[in-house]
Amino acid sequence: MDFLFNINVQFYITAYLVGGIPFGLLLAKAFAGVDVKSAGSKSIGATNVLRVVKETNPSLAKKLGAATLALDAIKGVAVLAVGYFAGVSEATMWAIAVLAVIGHCFSPYLGLEGGKGIATGMGVMMFMLPIETIIALVVWVVMAKTVRISSVSSLTGVLAMLIASFFIHPDIAHAPVVFIVFILFYKHIPNIVRLVKGEEKRVI
């Protein structure tokens, strides 16, 4: 058990546990009395919180959706910020980023189920690769305004971030970035299947 006293291991565990906090589920239950795990897409993310709560309380839905988005993004950043000021290595920082996303997507509090990871992924990437993430957000906004399909907007933005990272930071080890992108696409497989079938819903 001595390894638990290693500062890197402590940050890894913290990143996973904090990343796994299902803010969307908690907020929707506390303020709207609904279980997002049993309605809509059954995801704990902001989009499903907005969709499910909107059915009964449209004005509250926007607030809870925004709060979920912010908290899901911040939870990974919070651990990274502490790690940065603690002076951990860049490799450890990348591991923290990856584990925060894994925690959200495969939450220890939800039987290894979780959200799609976009907000948490963009949060940690904004900390690690801010320029690439800004590009991703611009692409996301453009796609959201034109296509109006949440999954398409998110995945296009994520892909833009990955491609931009190879041009802007060609010398970094891209394995963590690729792994995060892989997780995000993996969690969106049901959305991709619905897109192929023409069944993916538009955001109204």
From TrEMBL:
Full protein name? Glycerol-3-phosphate acyltransferase
Q: Note the topology in the membrane.
A: Multi-pass membrane protein
Q: List the HAMAP family.
A: PlsY (MF_01043)
Enzyme Commission number, as recorded: 2.3.1.275
Gene behind the chain:
plsY
One GO molecular function term of this record is:
acyl-phosphate glycerol-3-phosphate acyltransferase activity
Keyword Methyltransferase among UniProt keywords: no
Q: Which family does it belong to?
A: Belongs to the PlsY family.
Task: Specify the superkingdom.
Answer: Bacteria
Q: Which GO terms describe its cellular component?
A: plasma membrane
Give the record's subunit note. Answer: Probably interacts with PlsX.
**What are the record keywords, sorted?**
Acyltransferase, Cell membrane, Lipid biosynthesis, Lipid metabolism, Membrane, Phospholipid biosynthesis, Phospholipid metabolism, Transferase, Transmembrane, Transmembrane helix
Q: What class of enzyme is it?
A: transferase
Entry keyword annotation includes Cytoplasm = no
User: Which cell locations does it reside in?
Assistant: Cell membrane
Cross-referenced InterPro entries: G3P_acylTferase_PlsY
Chief localization class?
A: membrane
Describe the task this protein carries out. Catalyzes the transfer of an acyl group from acyl-phosphate (acyl-PO(4)) to glycerol-3-phosphate (G3P) to form lysophosphatidic acid (LPA). This enzyme utilizes acyl-phosphate as fatty acyl donor, but not acyl-CoA or acyl-ACP.
Q: Which GO terms describe its biological process?
A: phospholipid biosynthetic process
Native organism taxonomy = Bacteria, Pseudomonadati, Campylobacterota, Epsilonproteobacteria, Campylobacterales
* Known catalytic reactions: an acyl phosphate + sn-glycerol 3-phosphate = a 1-acyl-sn-glycero-3-phosphate + phosphate
Q: In which pathway does it act?
A: Lipid metabolism; phospholipid metabolism
Q: Which PANTHER family match?
A: GLYCEROL-3-PHOSPHATE ACYLTRANSFERASE-RELATED (PTHR30309:SF0), INNER MEMBRANE PROTEIN YGIH (PTHR30309)
Q: Where exactly are the transmembrane stretches of this chain?
A: 12-32, 64-86, 92-112, 124-143, 155-186
